Q: What sequence folds into this?
């Protein structure tokens, strides 16, 4: 029986305190060491003598206290995003409830508290990061669409403790989350033993026998992570240094950028000049990188397998003054724009005489006789020769498309744009070639929030893949006006470098642009600190440390959270069998 006289404060205060501790573990305060104790108050609800609905509602309130301020940077993008911000905070708070609920279920079927907590929290982090259709195993059914919210994992609180997080090349960030949750659970097991605490919780269950296993497990894993990290970081960032890059960081507010006018063209054009023509005797760059969609003009092209001459014949009009069909009109407008913009790209390259990776919109005429818009990265060499294009795969809901807009048209009210602005997701895993001297390097581009999806970067360094030497991340964080989003985005990106053992070079409008080496060390910034590197224009220059080989995480992927889900499913099956026996 539950104690009806148990004060609500015994349930709500711990959950609220955990919400506060979680919030200050992330940016803007970035007190990551508090991540090791942030869950301890919440874990007092694992065996609290209260009604489950009160326990879960309290957990939901604690989740709101964490997520509402943590992701408030979404609202500054546009007034229409207030709804998206609050809805996402609501959903994330429910995921926190789900974590506690699953942990309690595991405990009921005999899994120790200290093990049930990390299993449940990591399983839910994986679920949240790919919900509803971003799971890699959906590839076998042909229904995978990269999506999910891979922010604010427990492991992200430790981004600054480089010796500790190096084992992410084995487990991904999920392993760091597992360790943080395990330490929290072990601490709670120690705190909950004294009679005074048990009386405060009104815990009438028999006192379990003392066990050193939780403390020992947490200690051994923590020390092992530190030793592994010290050896890894001690080996140095890379065996060699590759191309010299110049990364453009603009500082253009989104409302001006949306106009695609002369101010945007001049702003990024002047920065491109600074990048291409270094002063003070600095090395000439082998590659200049523009931020996401920072080049004013789109790149018009036709899909593979289609030829312009055949298309011209198909949409040919005998009398130009005659009324064209809508399809003919669309095609000839596309054809006009294609012919008009190609000389602009040639002139841009000729003026600076350096290979450039442009962030822009790609507009492609496809086999369905329509032109589709993509969020693209385009590489041209110093002679203006086309070397490849990557189209973003992991599009941002409401930011780059309206999910289920035919079924739920009201969702358009939560977008920052008017009209149909939707992009089409890319399908090609592009490896860009970059010739420097006698050596040809290869790199992959991940656009915007794609660096928060570990499965995308991992694809390029898996065994039997051709592989890449480094990653380029281009992003437009100008939506967020110098909020904590900039630092949090960079912190998450560090894990992609460690998981793949490849450098990541970032060119970001409004920041934070950086060169991150294969150990997650931020080697170059536009300013002296992270805070002083956002909301400023500048150029980040440096040599790219070159990584090689593969990692256990690249080879086996998200094996840890998948194992956690197998344990959870096994726990549910065991619970079902026990209930059948009792009945």
A:
């Amino acid at each position: 029986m539950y104690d009806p006289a148990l004060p609500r404060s015994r349930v709500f205060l711990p959950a609220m305190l955990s919400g506060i501790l979680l919030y200050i573990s992330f940016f803007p305060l970035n007190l990551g060491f508090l991540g090791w104790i942030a869950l301890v108050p919440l874990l007092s609800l694992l065996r609290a003598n209260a009604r489950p609905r009160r326990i879960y509602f309290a957990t939901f309130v604690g989740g709101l206290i964490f997520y509402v301020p943590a992701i408030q940077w979404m609202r500054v993008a546009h007034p229409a995003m207030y709804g998206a911000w609050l809805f996402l905070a609501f959903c994330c708070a429910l995921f926190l409830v789900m974590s506690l609920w699953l942990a309690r279920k595991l405990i009921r079927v005999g899994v120790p508290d200290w093990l049930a907590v990390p299993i449940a929290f990591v399983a839910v982090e994986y679920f949240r990061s790919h919900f509803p259709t971003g799971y890699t195993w959906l590839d076998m059914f042909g229904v995978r669409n990269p999506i999910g919210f891979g922010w604010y994992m427990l492991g992200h609180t430790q981004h600054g403790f480089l010796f500790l997080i190096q084992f992410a090349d084995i487990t991904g960030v999920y392993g760091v989350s597992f360790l943080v949750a395990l330490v929290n659970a072990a601490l709670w097991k120690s705190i909950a033993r004294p009679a005074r605490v048990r009386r405060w919780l009104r815990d009438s269950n028999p006192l379990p026998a003392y066990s050193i296993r939780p403390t020992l497990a947490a200690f051994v894993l923590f020390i092992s992570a530190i030793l592994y990290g010290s050896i890894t970081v001690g080996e140095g960032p890379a065996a060699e240094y590759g191309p010299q890059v110049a990364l453009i960081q603009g500082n253009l507010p989104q409302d001006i950028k949306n106009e695609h006018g002369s101010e945007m063209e001049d702003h990024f054009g002047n920065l491109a000049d600074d990048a291409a023509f270094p002063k003070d005797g600095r090395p000439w760059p082998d590659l200049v990188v523009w931020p996401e969609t920072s080049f004013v003009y789109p790149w018009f092209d036709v899909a593979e397998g289609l030829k312009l001459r055949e298309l011209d014949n198909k949409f040919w009009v005998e009398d130009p003054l005659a009324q064209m069909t809508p399809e003919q009109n669309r095609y000839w407008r596309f054809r006009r724009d294609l012919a008009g913009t190609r000389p602009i790209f040639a002139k841009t390259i000729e003026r600076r005489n350096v290979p450039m990776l442009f962030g822009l919109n790609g507009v492609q005429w496809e086999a369905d006789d329509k032109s589709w818009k993509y969020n693209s990265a385009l590489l041209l060499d110093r002679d203006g020769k086309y070397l490849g294009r990557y189209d973003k795969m992991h599009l941002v809901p409401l930011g780059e498309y309206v999910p289920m807009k035919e079924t739920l048209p009201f969702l358009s009210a939560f977008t920052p744009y008017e009209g149909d602005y939707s992009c089409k997701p890319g399908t090609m895993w592009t490896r860009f070639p970059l010739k420097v001297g006698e050596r040809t390097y290869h790199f992959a581009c991940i656009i915007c929030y794609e660096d928060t999806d570990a499965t995308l970067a991992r694809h390029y360094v898996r065994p039997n893949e051709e592989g890449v030497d480094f990653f380029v991340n281009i992003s437009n964080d100008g939506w967020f006006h110098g909020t904590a989003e900039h630092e949090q985005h960079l912190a998450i990106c560090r894990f992609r470098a460690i998981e793949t053992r490849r450098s990541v070079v970032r060119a970001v409008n409004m920041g934070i642009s950086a060169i991150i080496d294969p150990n997650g060390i931020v080697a170059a910034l536009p300013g002296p600190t992270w805070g002083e590197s956002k909301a400023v224009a500048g150029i980040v220059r440096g040599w790219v440390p070159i990584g090689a080989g593969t990692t256990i995480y690249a080879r086996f992927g998200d094996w840890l959270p998948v194992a956690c889900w197998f344990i959870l499913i096994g726990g549910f099956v065991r619970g079902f069998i026990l209930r059948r026996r009792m009945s």
Summary: The mean pLDDT is 89. The longest helix spans residues 81-108. The chain is about 45% helix and 15% strand. The longest strand covers residues 240-249.
